[in-house]
Amino acid sequence: MDNFSPNMLKTFKECPKKYYFRYVQKISVPQKSAPFEKGKKIHALANYYLRGDDISKLEKTLNKDELAVWESLKSNEYFQKTYINSEYNLSCKINDYWVGGRLDALVKDDDRYYILDYKTGSIPQNPEFDFQTIVYLLAADKFLKDSKELSFVYIDLKNNTNYKIDLTGELREKYTGQITAICKQITTAHDFCKNTKCCKFCEYNKFC
Ligand code: SF4
C-alpha cells in the first residue's frame, strides 16, 4: 500500500494528471536546480550541526548568501531547543491510509515538542492547512505518546521570521478528515483528470 507524502497529496490536489505522470508513470523531468541547491546545502548542514558533527570545513564552502542564511538559522530561537532527531522519517496510519515524510528536525522544551521546517524560499500560503503541516503533525502526534503539546514551526529564512502552528483537538479532527478524503480520492481515481489552470509552469506541459 502507498505511503502518501505531502508532495504526493499536494501534486494530486494541484492536478491529478500531474500526479499520474509523476507518481504512477514515474516520469521525472529535470528542473532548474539553482534554488534547490541552497536549500539542500542548508538542510545538510543543519542536520550535521544538530547531530553534533564538526561542520567547520563545510561552513567554509558556503558563499556569502548561504552563510547569511545559515547564521540566521543557527541563531533562531527554535534551533536552540533540545534536539531529539533530524532528517527523521515518520509515518502513521490515518483510517485506511498511510501517510508520512521526512521531518527537518524534532526538538523540545519543558512543555512542548516542535517540528522544525526550514524554508530558504517561501513558506506555504496557507500554512495551517498545507499537507506538509498536516502530515507531519499527525505523524508526530501518533508517535510521541506523552503529555507534551506539539507544534509545527516554519522557519522562514528568507524573511527571518517563524510561523508556529499548535496542534489542537479541533485541528487534529479536521486534519484527519482532510487526509482521509484526499487519500480516498487518489486511491479510487480511475481517470486522472487535467487541471489546466497551472499548466504554464508544469514540467509535463510539453507532452501532456
Ligand atoms: S500540463 Fe497542465 S494538465 Fe498537464 S499535468 Fe501539467 S498541470 Fe496538469
Give the gist of this structure.
This protein has helices at 6-14, 16-24, 34-51, 56-59, 64-74, 131-143, 169-187, and strands at residues 3-4, 82-94, 97-108, 112-119, 149-156, 161-166.
Structure description:
This protein is of the alpha/beta class. It has one domain: Alpha-Beta Complex (Lambda Exonuclease, Chain A), CATH 3.90.320. 40% of the residues lie in helices and 24% in strands. The protein has helices spanning 6-14, 16-24, 34-51, 56-59, 64-74, 131-143, 169-187; strands spanning 3-4, 82-94, 97-108, 112-119, 149-156, 161-166. Strands 1, 2, 3, 4, 5 and 6 form a six-stranded mixed sheet that branches. Helix 1 runs antiparallel to helix 6, helix 3 crosses helix 5 and helix 6 (131-143) crosses helix 7. The protein is globular, with a radius of gyration of 18 Å. The relative contact order is 0.18. The mean pLDDT is 93. Iron/sulfur cluster binds at residues 15, 17-18, 21, 194-196, 198-199, 202, 204-205, 208.
Element string (H = helix, E = strand): EHHHHHEEEHEEH
CATH top level label: Alpha Beta
Number of domains: 1
The major β-sheet equals:
6 strands, mixed
Shape: globular
Helix content: 25-40%
Radius of gyration: 18 Å
Mean pLDDT: 93
Strand content: 15-25%
Q: What is the rounded distance between the termini?
A: 27 Å
Bound small-molecule species: iron/sulfur cluster
What CATH calls the topology is: Lambda Exonuclease, Chain A
Structural class call reads alpha/beta
Number of helical segments with 4 or more residues? 7
Identify low-pLDDT runs.
none
The number of E-state strands comes to 6
